[in-house]
Structure formats: structure tokens, C-alpha cells
Amino acid sequence: MNFKGKAISVDVNDNIATLTFDLQGESVNKFNRLTLGELKEVGQLLTQAKDIKGLLVRSNKDSFIVGADITEFGDMFHLPEEEMLAGINAINADFSVFEDLPFPTVTAINGLALGGGLEMALTTDFRVMDSHAKIGFPEVKLGIIPGYGGTVRAPRIIGTDNAVEWIATGKDNKAKAALAAGMVDAVVEADQLDAAAMDLLQKAINGDFDIAAIRKQKTSPLQLDDIENIMAFTTAKALIGQQAGRHYKAPMYAVKTIEKAAKLGRDEAIKVENEAVTKLGKMEITGNMINLFLGDQALTKTAKGYASNNTPVERAAVLGAGIMGGGIAYQSASTGTPIIMKDIAQAGIDMGMGEAAKLLSTKVKRGRLTADKMAATLNKITPTLSYDGIDQADLIVEAVVENPAVKKAVLAEVEGLISDDTILTSNTSTIPITELASALKRPENFCGMHFFNPVHKMPLVEIIRGEKTSDAAIARTVNYALAMKKKPVVVNDCPGFLVNRILFAYFAGFVALVKEGADFVAIDKAAEKFGWPMGPAYLCDVVGIDTGVHAGKVMSDGFPDRMGQTFKTCLEVMLENDRLGEKNSQGFYDYKADKRGKLRKTYNESVKALLAPHVDAPKEFSEEEIMDRLMVPFCLESIRCLEADIVSSATDLDMALIFGVGFPPFKGGAIRFVENMGLAAFVEKADQYKELGPLYHPTDTLRDLAANNGSMFK
């Protein structure tokens, strides 16, 4: 038999069938409706074929199969539960057909075999892997678990412990680890892959292996006695529960699904998996995680669209060293773009180079970088106290003190030393770009490039368009951000831009709560329970109390009706008492380094005494009220930014908050959070706090959308 489809082809030579995945019109193979339909057809043809002795499964693309088409798979989750379950059952039956073919089967894995791609490979008797390939089950990152038999076949091939680790963590695995675990049977160089797979298949055809025994192991219950079963899954649930936390359901679902199916044969075990996938698919968190995945892709596509209109940055410069400048220099150099790091003081240079060296040394200690590569990266950073060589930079990041007068002076000075097409950017966190551009002769070549601290950890970079910023300036800056392996989002100018404008509405809710007698420790606990990586008091300490007070004044001036304060805030009290946060080891909390050098916070009772003269009598607030008081302003300011076209879409806004300030990913972003609640329900909740002022007042547009069952996602 021969078959030629739009995703799959089958050729037969010397009674050996070769099934090739090659999805037309796509750069990668994936399981969309077309591919799954052809897979079903091919499975039926192979089952009925005469004289075929073996099957080789391979790919014509750079990767084997990257998984299911999440846009189509996600649509399935909107079906009625019974219909969704029936659909998944049918797909799994088509996969099992390949496991039951009456002749030996081998898969050649190149590039990536992820999710459904790996599950397809597991249906065959043997797997040969390219030495540079990676395989894994990333489904938990989307809030689901493997749905094409992965929770059934993996533990029967590599054992319970290994399968739990592979599935519940969602990590990719290199060839060496895959071979050691037994997930693949051989690893070869890429140019030998097809030949090695065919050789293994020929040996299987010749009877060198007990195919029946291999298949019996894959289709039978797990070979665990009762004690082994209890020990394996009790330990696994404790470990995965601790790692995943209470907000993410899929990892624990994976463990429990494997456990529930442990004593069942393949077909019954797959039914257990299908039921678990269906239940997860109906959860709000799954929709949020899928939207997060799609939003990330959309953000990257938009950024690449900007970047395609300009040439790459071959040499950069950062003005102002220290921790931030050193972090920017490190990120640029470590991703391949040489950079000049200029400061007015040797102490700043030393601090900046020290920051870069520290980050690289950590990689060396962890075995992720060689000493030679560390030295080569440091050599890409040119520290200097002068402007020598600055005229060679394609793009310059100004990262001096957050003071408009100082920034304007530095920007004007450097503009006189560079070419007419060099792009100037400012790493300001709050000062409007249009205001800073007033000091320049070529404002069209200027935009904001706001990095988040610490630079090496925070994915987001805000690219801020001023009133006179050109498309060329935006394009080159986005290009540079992508080269630095960051996630750029282009926003329009206003005080605080996008992320900090929204964040300081949240802080406004926080300082008002403290003023009314709320305990900041209780506020932090409620926020962390909600899903934030840290509460607002702790976050202020990490950002720096002095930075927070300064930025708060900028935001107060910019939005006095919502963010202006008529009282001395708790942040101002901390600043007056030289409690600056982590930077001087005392803020809302005290900080001390542990054995690994990581700062640990402890509560200091004296802070309450410092605050006492400036706050109302202690008052206990419920966790629900605390979060309402924080999140209503946060979400309303997000909506205002969207309405004012500060950001181009609700998706970009949500992604910026997740990547920029750590908004709980499982909640999907501020706009998704509001839409999941229901616009009418959110407006009703906000109205409960209307006496607190404009910070809590829904916009007219939001009220109209709520009344008409509209959506902020277009």
C-alpha cells in the first residue's frame, strides 16, 4: 500500500512501510484535525495491508512532532463534557491501532518530540533518537496532562517514578537522559538516524527481539505489588504537591491518573486518562493556561513584526553602570551583542562589572557555562569612564538615576556625540518619554526601553513610544530586545507607562489599607494565597522603598484623582526611618542572607511601632476584602490603559503583567481575571467600594460592556 496525504505519506519498499509526517504549509508537524484524520486512515490501511513486515515512523521536517495544535485542541474543551470525552476516546483508539499492528514498528525521533509527538513514538515498539533531539510531556504547563496515552504508556516503559517526573514536571529531556531512563532504545548522530532506525527495524523483523513481550509490558497493568504501589504514589504525591503548589491542578492529576490506572490494562487505563483530561479541560485554570500559551505566541509574533522592519543591533551601549547597568550589559553580552558600559565613577563601573561577573560565575558553578565562555562574554563588555567608542553604537540605553533633569542632561549630551541614525532609549520606569524627548534635537530617534529588575530574570521589556518616536526607532529597539531574549511589548506614553501605572494603583490600594489599620503581614499573606509571588509590602522592599516613594510621587502627579494621597503613607514612614528594603536589609521586614547567600525576610515588631502614629487603630480585614481592595484598583487601571490605547490589545496587557510583575499565570492576567469573573459581577464588586473614591470607580465603557454582555478581547 502507498498513501499520499497533506500531513502523512506512506511508502512501501521491500515489504517495509515508511510513514512520514510532513504537514504541508507548516514549519513543524503537529496533531491538528487534518493530521489526526490522516493518522486514522493510515492506521486502518496498515492494519488491513498484506505482506508488510515492518513500519518505520519518521519526519521530513526539522522536528518529529511538536505536539497537538493547541488552537484546535483547546476548542475541544468548549464542547459538552460527554462529547469531549467521546472525541478523546476516538483519538486514543486511533493511536492504539499503531501499537497493535501485526508487525514490528520503530520511530526515528529528530528535533523535538513533545506531547502528542512523544505519545505517537511510544505506540511503536522501539524508538531511536537523534543525539541533539529533545522529548517530553509539556502538557502540565497548559493545565492539562498527556491525552494520547502518555500517562499509560510512559510508566509501563520507564517505570512509575520516572514517568511521574517526566509528566508532572513538564520538562524537556535530552537524548542522554531519555536513553538512561529507557524512553528510547538508541541514540545516534542526526545523519545516521534513519539508517539506524531501519537497521533496528530489520533486526526486529528478523526476530532478534521478543516483540510480544515488549507489547505485553506496555498493555498490561504495572508490575507493582500493593506495598510498592502505596510507597511509589504516596511519595510522588507528596513531592509533586509540594513542587506544584495548590494553584496548579494538572501535576497532581497526572500522578493520581497514573495511580488509578496502575492495576488496569491499556484500554481501561486509557479511559481513566481520558476522563482526567476531560475534567481538567473543563477547569477555568486550563483555559487560562492555554490562553497564556497562545498569548505568548501572539506577543512574539507582534514583536517580530516590528523587528522585521529594521536591521539588528550589532553594538550597544548603556549609560550608567551599577546593578541595573551591569544587568543590562550582562544580558546583552551573554546573548551575543557587544556593549559599552559607561559611568561617571569608577565605583559604578566596578559594581556593574561585578554584577555581570557574579551572574556568569553562578552559571559556571552550576555547570551551565565554561570558564572560557565566561571570559569571552565579559570581553564583550567594554567598561569606560569616557564616551570613547560611543559613536559606534547602534543603540544606546540610558540607565542613570531616575531624575528627569539628570536624564535630560545625559541624553542631550550623548546625542551630540552620535550619528543621526543611532537610536537613543531610556530605561526609565515612570518618567514620560515625551517629557524626556523635549531635551533632544532628534526626538524621532528616541523611545523608552524599560527593563525590570533583576534584568536577567524578568522576561519583559516595555518599549515606550513617545509623541515623536519614529517607527524605525521602535523597530530597532524591539529587535535589540528580542536579541537579548526578552519579551518586548510596545506601549504608548503616559506616567508609569503600562506595568508600573497598573502596579501603583495596586500599591495605592495597599497603602490605604495600612492607613485604615490593616496589618501589612496579613495583607501579604492574603496576596500570596491569591497567587502573587509576594505580597505588596514584601514587593516594596524588593523594589526599594526609596524607588517606590519616588515613583509614587510621579504617579500621584500624573493621576492625582486616583493615586494622589492625602496622608503620609507607610512607604514614606519607612523611608523617613531609613528602612529601604532589601538594599539595606531593613524595610517592612528585616533581611539576612542564608548559607546560600539568599536574603530571607523576618518580621520585626518595631515596624508596627513606627507605623502606629500614622495609621488608624488596628483593624482586622477578611482575606476577601483585602484582595478586593488590592485587585479592583489593579484591574480597573488595567482596563483604563486598554481604553486609552496605552497597549494594543487585552492579550498584550495580560502578558505584560504576567512577565513584568508576576501576576499569577493560572489566573490568566488582569483582563482575563475580570472576564472569568464576569464583567457585570466585577462592576458590582467595584461598586461595593465606591465610597473609597475614583480608584474604585468603573469606567463608563466598562459599564456599557457589562450591560451588553461584551468582551475586552477583540
Overview of this structure, please?
This protein folds into three domains: 3-282, 2-enoyl-CoA Hydratase, Chain A, domain 1 (Alpha-Beta Complex); 310-495, 3-Layer(aba) Sandwich (Rossmann fold), CATH 3.40.50.720; 500-570 and 618-645 and 678-707, N-(1-d-carboxylethyl)-l-norvaline Dehydrogenase, domain 2 (Orthogonal Bundle), CATH 1.10.1040.50. The strands form four sheets. Strands 13-12-11-14-15-16-17-18 form an eight-stranded mixed β-sheet, sandwiched between helices. By secondary structure, the protein is an alpha/beta fold. The model has no long low-confidence stretch (mean pLDDT 95). α11 packs antiparallel against α12 (266-281) and α23 (545-558) crosses α25. The two termini are 48 Å apart. The protein is built from 31 helices and 20 strands. This is enoyl-CoA hydratase. One of its GO terms (biological process) is fatty acid beta-oxidation. It comes from Oceanicoccus sagamiensis.
